[in-house]
User: Fold these one by one.
Assistant:
Number 1:
Amino acid sequence: MLDYITSYLGMNTTPGQAGNVFWAVVYILVVFGGVSVAVIAMNWLERKALAHFQIRLGPMRVGPHGLLQPIADAVKLLTKEDIIPHEADRFVFWIAPLIILCASFTVYIVIPFGPTHAITDLNIGILFMLGVSSLSVLGVVMAGWASNSHYPLIGSLRSSAQMISYEIAMGMAVVTAILMTSLNKSGTGTLSMIGIVQAQQQQQIWFLFKFFPLGFISFAIFAIAMVAETNRAPFDLPEAESELTAGFHTEYSGLRWSLFMLGEYTAMIAVSSIAVTLWLGGWLRPFPNTLTGETWDLVFSLIPGFTFLGLAVIAFIGVKRMPKHPYFKIQTAGLAGFGAVLGLIGILLFIPPVRDRIQDIFWFVAKVAVFMYLYIWYRATFPRYRFDQLMKVGWKVLLPIAIGVLIVTAILGVVL
Amino acid sequence: MTDPTTYLSHLELGEPDKTFLDTNELIINMGPQHPATHGVLRVILKLDGEKVLGTECVIGYLHRGVEKIAENRTYTMFNPYVDRMDYVAAVSNGLGYCEAVEKLLNVEAPPRAKYIRVILTELNRLASHQLWLGTHALDIGAMTPLFYTFRDREEILKIFEKYCGARLTTHAFRIGGCQYETYEGFEQDVKKFLDFVPPRIDEYEELLTTNRIWVERTRNVGKISAADCKALGVTGPVLRASGVKWDIRKALPYAAYPEFQFEIPTGANGDTYDRYMVRMQEMRQSLRIIRQAVEGIPEGPIMAKVPKVMKPPVGEVYHSIEAPKGELGYFVVSDGSTQPYRVRVRPPSFVNLQALDVMVRGQLVADVIAVIGTLDIVLGEVDR
Amino acid sequence: MPWESPLVAKLKAQYGSGVREANTYLGQNYLVLEPSIAREALQILRDEEEFDYCVDVTAVHYPNREKPFDLIWILYSFARNQRLRVKTMLADGESFPSSVAIWPTANWLEREVFDMFGIKFDGHPDLKRILLPDDWKGHPLRKDYGIIQQDQEWVKANLGIESGQ
Amino acid sequence: MEPVATPFFFYFLSGLTLLSGVLVITRKNPVHSALALILGLLAQAGLYLMLYAPFVAGVQIILYAGGIMVLFLFVIMLVNIERSQKEEQFNKQWLVGILSAGALGGLFVLVYTKGSGLFPAVMSLPVENNNTQQVGELLYGQYMFAFEIASLLLLVAIIGAVVMAKKRI
């Protein structure tokens, strides 16, 4: 048994491909837990960052700087009364949030956090991701219909029309990136997520910069479409509260509503991961081809550790700036403890074996975090599109450009 | 509640597009409880898909009978009531009423009082426009301007609070002048505000003016021509955005306005974007007026000689001012007693709201929200 | 103080004694017209004299008079930058031709006059109450309507409370 | 990777497909039927995966479960469900039904008993890794003509839909 467990450590592949059930389960648990924690962190960060965009403080009461606010919210949501409208279709009403949640989480099976850090590597990886994430439309439609009320129904119709429309432009952009994997000496492309990153490694270029500006345009299309796909501002029409109150989840409350939120944030992280994998070199560190050599490797491998130490320092500065009143004693201690944990992680990341295994994940997560921040930034900056304008952007702007880029990329690939 | 379809009976509604697949028109109720109707406005929409075929406003949910109250109060007692109509521009309401009664009494406020009135009214115009901008942007989906405008509006309310003790329903003026002399440091406060606010207005404009989504959401939305504006009696920024250079402060000046120099900003297309631009420029013009007023404020008394018990001679007078929303008129009839025989308020929001139907026909549901926002109505004034 | 102007002269020439008064009070001009010619005169004021903006339509109730209602139009001309009040007197229950066809803005304003005074306008496209509920009884701005008076039946039926009187 | 518990998954997925098929025709509420149909399509995708056809499985999920069924649901949601619930669920063409069911059953039995000669006894194990490439090569090589005809047909259908639904273009 122990052999079965340790044998995987020597293998240079994902647990899924190695057929090692134990490690696969471990990875699933880690990814599931990690994503849940990330969603909670994202929730806090969004409220905090949005508040600072809007010259507010955001949550400040629960825990130091509101760090425990998401937990308090979660407890509140779990203990809230669970309301199902009288005329609702109970079964569909009940299953809709689960479908969204399952669709968003299943996607993580193929996301490569590192060359071996993925639950499995399917050879249709990207296709699988697009397919499964398109299933969440079903959840939206079902939720809107099952509520048996006008506003949710209109919200879900808008939402699913939007998601289906943007899926097409998104798919075209993805195909452009996949096409780029095959433009090498041997002429073999791949749909596998790990394979795509490895292709970028072999070609010594992030696809963002390949055939400049073609790679960049396709990336931009994807970046716009993915915001629409996740129903976030400025494409948050289904949830346009000034028109439709809360869109398809108007009738939901408590735990079920929080499942929708969990699904939304999970999907945001998932599509950002696709963008990172396809265009930003996945787990590869910045400048892999210009800043080469052992020294640079060392320098970049130290960055994760320093990042966490830096966060710890910020936490300790926060401790110093806490009011000295005894009322804040627990909060101050909590913040100091949080800083200490961050610092400890930072120090752990300097140990060479850990460092080498972790730094892939660090770079991947760092790139995804940039996208998460962009989501918040969009939300603070942009007004909302109108429905016909949204459709116009999707069908008349993004789709033709995406097809054009695809064709030009294909021609360039044949010519060069 | 009455069946909403009965309301639509009189409208000559457009017919839905006849196509191979016929769609039915849909009648939905927006409000009175709806986040985007700015209070308790109820709009009944007749839709073909998302296209608006016709609307009908149902108002009166906030009716308090202000005009009836006026007939049962003395001239002085009625003064605070007018603040409750357009509660985001209470100072303007008070100015209009005080000047109307002064006209009836044939007295004139002393110059210093007039200057104080201009300063406070223009500050109030700024506050009203800021509130409008924040809520209008929020309706269209931009959250952030709301907080920026409220931050700066706070400074204005602080000045009001220091001047008269109230922030919203100020009751700042009395018939014949002002009750309070400016507090110590009033001019410094206003000047500090004048220096602080122009970059903040730039900040709002940075977020919206050239924002592509904002422009697309507002340009060619809720268009109304100058002729329609005049026919429908629409006044204020809505009229000016349609290209009519008309402002009561210039056309029929009152208070100390003839002494100040300012421009009347106008638009060309009469769409929501133009109205936005007009109001933004009006904010800057207001600052210009305030600066001139603060720098040129004369010394002297602040109260004209008015009797304690006011008994205006028998007669009637109509006086109107340029409120932030448009022409705010008071028609006061005196029968020689201490109580007004009749006070009629000509509310700009009420008359402007009538143009909603013209502005949204043929547009989409989302535009209805944008148009309600751009009309800048306050339901307290619509329903009185 | 009598008001002399070409406009008044023209109207007087056309209608004679139909123009009962043309005065200026506190610098504000007003005309008092006979109800029989008022509608026509309003049309002339807009078409020929450029009073293209109807500021307000309102009424005043004088219960002791023979014709208890003053119906008042406040007009403005953009071209002349001039305001003008036009008044006419109506008996109780007498209706008046609607001016919506002249100024569309009169639509809601006339509805409000109907709501508050009970003056009916013939030819109004949709004459019904505007501020008060549709089935309310009484017209509150008439002088014989007390300030705390309510439609007790309506209050009881719609709000489920006893009227506070 | 070696397949794990193949017979179990085969019977599980087949059972699921059959069950959802029965549900599709027995549910009174059309939305429930559509949901059952989606379940069946997903189970079929699993079966494709077991046949080493991951590309087909992925396309099945994207197109059928994610795309076409959403459109189905759109239409069903917008029609009046109360009316359809009152209508009689099965029509009276049981004779035709029995005949066709019998014919299909007979065919199955025939294939099961006599079909051993038609199929190879041992199936050659397909290569999993370049499945997608093979599909692409077949589509754009051998079956190019058929593929293009199909795409032309779809284009005509799209234009037809637009013309029917919109008066002014």
Number 2:
Amino acid sequence: MARIGVFICHCGENISATVDVAKVAEEAAKMPGVAYAMDYKYMCSDPGQTKIIEAIKEHKLTGIVVGACSPRMHEATFRKAAEKGGINPFLCEIANLREQVSWVHPRTEATTRKAIDIVRTIVNKVSKDTPLFPIKVPVTKTALVIGGGIAGIQAALDIANAGHQVIMVEKSPSIGGHMSQLSETFPTLDCSQCILTPRMVEVAQHPNITLHTFAEVESVSGFVGNFDVKVRLKARSVDMSKCTGCGTCWQKCPSKKIPDEFNAGLSYRTAIYSPFPQAVPNKPVIDRANCNYFQKGKCGICKKVCPAGAIDYEMEDEIIDIKVGAIVTATGFDIKHTDFFPEYGYGEFKDVIDGLQFERLASASGPTSGEIRRPSDGKIPEKIVFLACSGSRDKAKGIEYCSKICCMYTAKHAMLYKHKHHEGNAYVFYMDIRSAGKNYDEFVRRAIEEDDVHYIRGRVSRIYEKDGKLIVKGVDTLMNAEPVEIEADMVVLATAVVANPDAESVAQKMHISYDKHHFFAEAHPKLRPVETNTAGIMLAGACQTAKDIPDTVSQASAAASKIMGLFSSDEMTREPVVAVVNRCMPPLFTTCTGCLLCLEVCPYHAIEREEIKDRRTGEILKVAAKVNAGLCQGCGTCVAFCRNKSIDLQGFSNQQMLSEVVALLNKPF
Amino acid sequence: MIICSIQLIFFCIKRQLNRFNIEIVHESIETKPGNSLKSRLEESVGVIVSHCYQCGKCTAGCPLNEDMDIKPNQVLRMLQAELPGYEDKLLSSLSIWLCLACDTCYSRCPQEVKLSQVMDFLRQESVRQNKVNPKAKDILSFHKAFLETIEKNGKLNEVWLTLNYKLKTLNMIQDVQKAPSMFFKGKLNPIPSRIQHVKEMEKIFQRISENEGGDK
Amino acid sequence: MSEFEPKIVAFVCNWCTYAGADLAGTSRTQYASNVRIVRFPCTGRIDFMLLMKAFENGADGVIVSGCHPNDCHYTSGNFHARRRWIVFRSILDLIGFDTDRITFSWVSAAEGKKWANLVDEVTDKIKAKGPFTDLDKLDGVQLKELYDEAITK
Amino acid sequence: MKVGFYPGCSLEGSSKEYSKSLFAVSEKCGITLEEIKDWSCCGASAAHSLNHDLSIALPARTLALAEKQGLSEIVIPCAACYGRLAASQQAILNDKAILEKTEKYIDMAFTGNVQLLTVFEFLQKYIFPVADQYIVDKLNQKTACYYGCLLARPKDLTKLERPENPMEMEKVMEKAGATPIDWAFKTECCGAGFSMSRTDLVAKLSGRILEDAAERGADSIIVACPMCHSNLDLRRPEIKKQLKKDINIPVLFITQALGLSMGISAKELGLDKHFVPTGKAVSCIVKKEA
Amino acid sequence: MKLLQNKVAELFENGTINLMIGFKEALTKQPVPCFIEKASEIEQLIYTKDCKNNLSVYLHKPEVKQAGKIGILANIATLRALVQLTSENQFWDIEKTVLTVNDKEEVIVFSDMEEVEAYVQANFPEFSEEDLKLLDYLESLSREDRWKYWTEQFSACIKCYACRAVCPMCYCPQCTVECNQPQWIKTSAQTTGNLEWHIMRAMHLAGRCINCGECGRICPVGIPVHLLTVKMNQDLFKEFGTKSGFALKGDYALNSFKPDDKEGFIK
């Protein structure tokens, strides 16, 4: 006979404010199989846990139910306590009384009834629980880093320096990411490339890092410690082993009018190109969509001029299979472009540019060699208007969130402009200045106080072009909402930070969650900010949400350390929530019919054919299905699929699920 | 023709004297918590003023921003803050009458606040509480003349409207020079065109005014 | 007589809808207390037999909810579940079972609000429909009636 | 082909030429416009300024009549009327309580199954497919296509592809052989309903519009709203006073311009009814080369 | 008939089979199954259009399996069953020779299952018109009337499980109704339990039923149970294009999916 203990947590007042916790404990005590019930202010606290441990011993409990917050919060805590008390941790289950009861309902009897129902359900589940024992699986001590921006670079270097193998996959021809495009960085105004390029080179030369640029992840299968990843190495059309990076090919390439991604479309590049002079690896690729040879079938100049004979038009995409134990997702972000703003001209005014374009204009390696000139006619603008919150915090445009970095980089932009043109006028339209960060607010104040940037509080309604000027119609809400009209030479929109266009499909390949803006979801917003809900996959950088460089680097290092922890032992234990095919006495052996239709259902190919043989004669007595516990992830799809219930899922067994349903019902809600 | 016009003027004056009061009931409403201007607005129009975060984009784009005594974003600000005196100030402002309902504000509003509906509501409240700004009397008179005209005729006749409006404002000279040329271009039709079932029209007005009486 | 309070059982997956319901809690989004959640690892684990058992044991409505297509934590559990639901609905439809009492939905971990709305909507719908009594009327008398009928023939 | 038609008050009075030209163009293209019997005024800005229920009930009466008449689609050339009718229909269909209330007011059933067409939608759907065979002349001039507010806003009612810089009218003008100019005041407000009550403001707003069109070299301004037309055409003396300069660009209705390209006479299109002489626009026209 | 008997005699003679499952005449119009163990008994073997039984159901019986080499005379439904069962991995321990008589009354002895598959695919039967008519009628009813119809039907069920016994696809050594931990379905013959039993049966056979109609024919209280699975097969074909008993390499709707399966019903 089961002896179950029920422990109801008040969670301070979080639960007790709307649920009559004493009543719940009282009712629980009456439930069949319950030997002990109590309520306490903080079950998860040390004294709370001690109470559980003592109760287990004192009342000889065989299983416990904790009515508290979501099992996603403290299941592990309480299972550990149960273990300390001397019972199998899987005989401890959580009744979710906070997230799904007290926080979502008012203080009524119905709410308390719901709490009691949930406790009863879980008591019934526990009474059908069986002890389970963790499964050990080996760990492949190689990490995959997806994305070669500053986040990926930092994570890869940290893991590699700890002595583990790292494979880095970057989709563009060079690593470096958005940071390599920036001019100076706030709040120190040090040159972005100067601090980044040494890191890039280190990645390329690190003995523990294998770098695949111009490559993308095709698929991810397997599970923590044992992921199988397919990587597509896109055809570069250039043999990396022969190419010396001399540059003859791109100097001679006749297709010269392709908008240059690195310069945010402000200049042109050739069809065979290396994105920028400090690229790593600094070897070109052919952009086949824009190459005369591939599009029209004639040209072939690069092949003729290449002194190393490295050009290979026949090259094809190659898919490689790699095995890794953990993954860092550092796929970065995108920004909205000026065509996202109808009221600012649908991107049709050349001198209305976005922040990244301004970075390129201000960068010494940019198309104007660092002179700030407007794109339409190359004139140096006398008046620049910066619009913060362009698209951010704009529900109507579908982006409610703050992009976090714009306040700072707008201040930086205005400052850079003023440093280069003391006589020029810089105006910043803003709603709020969000400059929380070390030395950040001081930086903004410097722009206002020392560099004489005019900050105007108000949003701009419209921009139109007249006689080569951009008429900016704004408002000064600090001046009795006075309408403001500025005839500007150039307008810089601090456009919203958004997820990469392919973020959704990346997330789906990895089976990680993402939010409605397609930013990847962390496992817990506060306590597990670098892990995803899929064990073994970590997040770093702006693919999770808009981030500045210091935050990105911190998160990357955190992700790396999570992985180093994972790699610190040769084996890892997995939860024994796995499917099992039943066994019984001969001549039946198992009720499984051996139809093997479930083999197709399993997403992990964890089910295999098993021949049950006579030990002496070797004669096949029965063919049945068998679950490989090492591969099984415990989804239970096979369990619901099996016609005659021959497979069951440990921890979510048929008996448990059915008794939960029965316990819930048969009485008024 | 002349007789016709005289008849028309005569008729208008008569109507002006025993004016039928369309749906406009003057009354004063006490400001109680839960019955504030804001809560009534949110209830009847469904615009939530707290959505506005005062970026000022509405004012920046408003075609008449310079002429408004209270700027569009400030209208919302006053509704949000609900400080003593704001309500009176709002209802007796000129701005609410200057709003052209061009919807430029709403079409660019990042928080999707339907400001033109707020303005409609405030106008109706202003009339109801008899707080119309003196400078807006002409605009109000025009609106009233317009509605009276269609109540009686079902559709608009510009001569009819103009005369009615001029009688209300006693501004006889304005636009007089335009009339002859419009007339000869065939744009003015002194004989009031009417819909067939004028009675239906009156009934609609009547039912609405009865229903509103019942509501309060 | 107090108002009819429907009994609704929700069969949800652990990774999306259960997390979505948790999010509704963390964001303090209020919704009808008529729902009781049963947590499964995946929608693929939800046996159609359990839905029948829920009705048999007195549920007035059932919600089945999991990850959106392509978002399944286990890659394809929800796709298999979706096929099963299609087939299950068609058999119920043939038999004339009131399929309006079963609501299928996708609620992701980010959709706390959607979860709350879903529960409210289903609660209202079932309230309007009234208690589920189709099964209550079945047992007991028919066999005897049938026997009597057979005898008289 | 038959399409329902709601003229609205202005098209019977001060903007007769809009109606006249629309009929001329439709007739040319074999489209018959069937007027809603006993239609009444939409209430315009007066109704929604003073009485919310009235602003829904007045258009609803006309829409209910159209339903009774069995019209499935009606074209509403006046942008203001379109705005009121569409807003009313949307409000009723979105809220059952409003539907019930309104049906009581108008004492008629309302189903909302009449589809409302703006003048652009009408041209696009019925005139465009056949227009090419009737277009014989080229307008051969720079036109400033002016939308004003009510053709462009609110965006959920007007259904324009690019509400901040719409191109629907430009497409019509290109068809008619004109060169639409790129200008900044396409969707700025002209002062609309203040024509009579605050003529000073109308002069200011319409003045800006005319000024920009003139500075960018427009030969004509094309409109599709009677209010815009009367403010830009009729209020020229006040605008002159405001700007302290005379701008004599003629203002044509979109249907007039299209009619001209189809070889319909200026008189038939009502060009003689304008205050600003339209000769300048007509004189640019050349035969379309085959 | 002689032709068939000669052929089978030949098979006995050359040792290809040592048990023949076929049909013999009965008192009723419909022939009944017979088991022939020696060549001398061959004379009773017949095949007519009225041979409707699905003999493949006997292949699951241990007594039959013990015989070793089995010959089976199959109508088209039986052939489909053999194909489906092969795809479900059920014949790993059985050596069988399949015979059929085609439209031209020719006797065909299949040399392997691939030939059976090809024959089935070439002669794939339509749904019977009678069944379709009944289904159409049911569909024309209101939901409430359908519910009434079926619950009345099921109230008559006496849980004799004849439908299961006669079904070649119901070969589980232990059926879900026999599970008692947990007890999924009430064992007594009450309407709710009966309803659950039939819904479950339909679910388990959806996409696997080969439309032999045996279950409906055998039902002692005359419930048209086969309609449930016929309808399932019809819907599955409409929805996913799958056919049961059609291919050896399975084409089962419920262990596969397409990312764009319909989901209009999902909120």
